[in-house]
Amino acid sequence: MMKRRTVLQGALVSSLALFGTGGLAWAQAPEPYEPNQEMIDAAKKEGTVVWYTATDVQVAEKVGSAFEAKYPGIKVQVERSGAERVFQRISQEYGAGIHKADVVETSDAVHFILFKRQGWLQPAVPTDVAKLWPAEAKDPDGFFAAYRAHLSVIGYNTNQVKKEEAPKSHADLLDPKWRNRIVKAHPGYSGTIMTGTHALSEALGWDYFEKLAKQRIMQVQSSTEPPKKLAQGERSVMADGNEYNMFMLKESGVPVEVVYATEGTPIAIGHAGVLKSPAHPNAAKLFYAFMYSKDTQQLISDAGGLRSFHPEVKEKEGRTPLTQIKILYSDPAKLEPMIEDIKKKYELTFGT
Amino acid sequence: MNVSISLPMPARRGRIDLSRPIFVVLVLVLGLLVVLPLFWLGYYSFLDQNGQFTLANFSALVTDPTLRRPFLTALGMALGVGVLSCIIATPLAWLVARSDLPGRSAIRALVTASFVTPPFLGAIAWEILAAPNSGLINVAYRSIFGLEPYEYLLDIYTFEGLVFAIACYTFPYIFTLVVNALERVPSDLEDASSMLGGRLSVTLRRVTIPLVLPAILAGTMIAILQALTMFGSPAILALPAGFHVITTKIWSLFQYPPKPGLAAAAALPLLIVTVMLLWGQARILGRRGYTTLGGKNSEPRIAKLGRWRWLAIAFVIAVLLLTVLMPYAALLKTALTRTVAEPLTWSSFTLHHVNFVFFEFSATKLALRNTFLLGFLTATIGTTIALVIAYLVTRRSIPGSQVLGYLATAPVAIPGIVLGVGLFLSYSNPALMLYGTLWILLIAFLTIEMPAGYQQLSSAFKSVHPELEEASRILGGNRMTTLRLITAPLLRSNVVATWCFVFIGTIRELSATILLTTSETKLVSVIIYDLNESGDLGAISVLGIMLLVISFAVVIIANRLPVLGGQRLPAAR
To answer: What's the number of domains chain B is made of?
Structure first.
């Protein structure tokens, strides 16, 4: 019995197993590295890099092709699934001693706290990250850094709501005129919204959610869903949801508009890291550095509507640059032990 | 014993009767299918997050309002569905079985259509029709009466809306049972009533209804059971409305960080309620015997509706519009227009969604392949196993064969989502890692469909006299040869019907599937659910219509193909 129980925990509820284990002493961030010819030659000999990613599959494939074009002879194997599933796979594989992945990337910052604690990552800092990335967007010990970010924004349908009547802040959403007209995603099903709920509850207090719950909101699950409900015209205003979905809809002519709330807009950071024992160590580091290069960061901004921490990336026309938006950060290390609590409080407040 | 009996029969010398080893294998297989998941379910419900023994999971069911509330809501919802289904189904059944209403066979066919419709698809269709702002009915309502933009007539995202949307697809259970009962009620009792001067209403109230009451109650219990254990419709309609029922709550316990122990504990009361409902149903149906004990089996009396005719027609049309015609029309329209809101005209007509589903959406091909592979395998393997079990049990050829019957019927008491939890716990450890493969789904579907398959085939066996089989055995055929060469061909139409029934049941399953699929083992039902989450109603409509067309095609082909000799609509029983 005992054996089965522990084994089961490792695999099926792999995520749970992570909580129990203790930390490990980590060193200072290592020296930044720049890909050199030696590394490129070694990577070519390895021939492949395996990338576990949670980025939208079309965007991920584009990044892969760009790498293959820049370094002919090295194939990128894109293993794409949802953030939780990527997390589960790494946990299962590393728990069972299988080392297939080279580079991992998910949209949930909490995952990297857990990966690092398990000792499944190796420190690696490309020069771009060392020089250009702000401190809150990278690990002080150099185990991971923000590959991408997206905001969870307020938005509205411009056919149904005039610009001057649109909400400007989270407080505006509490106006009785929005009763029955708001759609909102769920922190229990979306890491983005969990991060956003944490950030907002720190900035505004839980009181804000108590009042919002009285507005008879339409509750959906994934953070991709509220923008679609706006597009359908089923609800006029969304309390939270992915900014990049709003970009995609807006740029294809759907009458929706993004609002950056005066209190601030929560950001969800998606980190990437090199695994502890990659199957292709040189290709892994080469690809990892490539991910943070200006061209790649520009590519994910243009093709995926994702936000970049690279200061030279130019936002597409019509998109507000990150520097002009008041951002609410959520500390994943603080959030991690609170997830259960927030889910429970949310259910008591909103009913699901 | 066996040896001494078989020795004098020269033809059987050197052959082994396989029925005994098959019996043992079947007991083991069914035991594995049914007992193992329930065992792990029970075991896990006593474990905390660290794998230590605890009773906290059960005490949480009582003390934690976020667990208690979904139970009470689900019970309320199920009762509501039971009552509403009963109100719809009983008059409809009487009209079809006992009145001179025109188009009765068409009505039956349409009710069968609502039977074949997966409830989650119906719920999505009702989202398209009655979402408060974008719903087609509400759009029409506003434009007809010239109302303000946010006025609405119907809001499907409410408790009442959910009850209604489920009842649309559960009333056929009551309908079918009551029609059967009405056709079997001997008309001499009614004749007696009318000869003694009772008018139609009196005869109905004092004779007919009491006679079919057991069927009404039994059907209502099935409807309640269906509603209680349903996952798809509540997930689509209750979550946006801001409440959980027990099935959606169990599912949410698997979101990060997963709590399998608590999910297992929450599943057990659902299992108990299900067993109690089934027990109640069996008791009620057990009393039904007297309805069929008529003297002569005369033709059922057909009532003349007279001036009530138009009211009856209006009622039937309303029911069929709400349950079948409008939802189907909404799906068709959504499939062929770019957005839900625009009306279907020549200019808004588009094949964009069709194109997206079949050529752009990467998940479609894999999901279709998986769905049909599993449908085919489950139907074939399931029907084969059910056939052998039904044979061994009805012919009582082996001592203890009754055990097989009980094992094959037991899964009926396990709600899909509970089975999903149990299977997830059983088959996702490194020693036996079936989670993430199609095998775990095959196991789930075989378990879920076994009771229906077994019931259909065992009742078929009871109708075949064993003398032909005995002839085969005398001529030297062993039991399995006899089953293959004699009995199975005689029961061909029943076998085909069972195959269809299992196939359709499999391709529309969602409750257990939702916990057992991964990105590599997606099924059509799950991608429909996922697409609903991302709001792609057009793509859903295309997939849903495809699922319906295939279901109907299977039913029709199986019933028309002369080679197969099928007769009965499997879904209508």
So the answer is: 1
pLDDT in tens, B198-220: 787 888 888 888 888 888 988 89
Among residues B566, B544, B542, which one has the least CA distance to residue B554? Answer: B566
SS3 category, B502:
helix
Do the domains at A31-148+269-315 and A151-267+337-350 have one common CATH topology? yes
What's the maximum distance between 2 C-alpha atoms anywhere in chain A? Answer: 65
In a domain, B365, yes or no: yes
Domain annotation covers residue B488: yes
CA distance B259 to B45: 10
* DSSP symbols for B430-469: TTEE-TTSHHHHHHHHHHHHHHHHHHHHHHHHHTS-THHH
Structure-block tokens of residue B521: 């083992």
Owner of token pair 């001067």: B197
Is residue B351 exposed (0-12), middle (13-18) or buried (19+ Cβ within 10 Å)? exposed
Domains of chain A by residue range:
31-148+269-315, 151-267+337-350
Q: Which helix (H) or strand (E) holds B558?
A: helix B537-560
- Which CATH number does A151-267+337-350 carry? 3.40.190.10
- A233 lies within 8 A of chain B by CB: yes
| Separation CA A312–CA A318 (nearest Å) | 17
With vertex at residue B18, the alpha carbon angle to CA B12 and CA B24, rounded to the nearest 5 degrees, is 150
Q: Does B536 touch chain A (CB under 8 A)?
A: yes
Kindly tell me the burial class for residue B293, based on how many C-beta atoms sit within 10 Å of its own C-beta (0-12, 13-18, 19 or more): exposed
Reference A270, options A35, A52, A30; nearest CA is A52
Residues 63-102 in B contacting A (C-alpha not used; CB under 8 Å)? 65-66
Contacts of B60 in chain A (CB under 8 A): none
Average pLDDT, chain B: 83
Distance from CA of A51 to the nearest CA of B (A): 17
Q: Is residue B483 part of a domain?
A: yes
- In angstroms, rounded to a whole number, what is the distance separating the alpha carbons of residues A118 and B120? 41
* Residues in CB range of B425: below 8 A, 6 or more apart: A8, A12, B37, B40, B41, B43, B44, B260, B264
Task: Give me the sign of the Cα torsion angle A185, A188, A194, A200.
Answer: positive
Query: Cα(B371)–Cα(B353) distance, rounded to whole angstroms?
Result: 20
Residues 182-211 of A with CB under 8 A from B: 186, 188-189, 191
Q: What is the CATH number of the domain that holds B408?
A: 1.10.3720.10
Domain interval for residue B27: 18-46+351-573
Token representation of residue B482:
């006899």
On whether residue B557 sits in a domain, the answer given is yes
- The domain at A31-148+269-315 falls in which architecture? 3-Layer(aba) Sandwich (3.40)
Contact B93, B182 (CB under 8 A): yes
Positive/negative CA dihedral, B86, B223, B186, B568: positive
Q: Looking at residue A81, what DSSP letter applies?
A: -
ipTM above 0.85, yes or no: no
pLDDT digits (tens, 9 = 90+) for A184-242: 999 988 889 999 999 999 999 999 999 999 999 999 988 888 998 998 889 999 999 99
Radius of gyration from C-alpha coordinates of chain B = 25
Chain-centroid distance of CA A195 in Å reads 9
- The structure's pTM equals 0.82
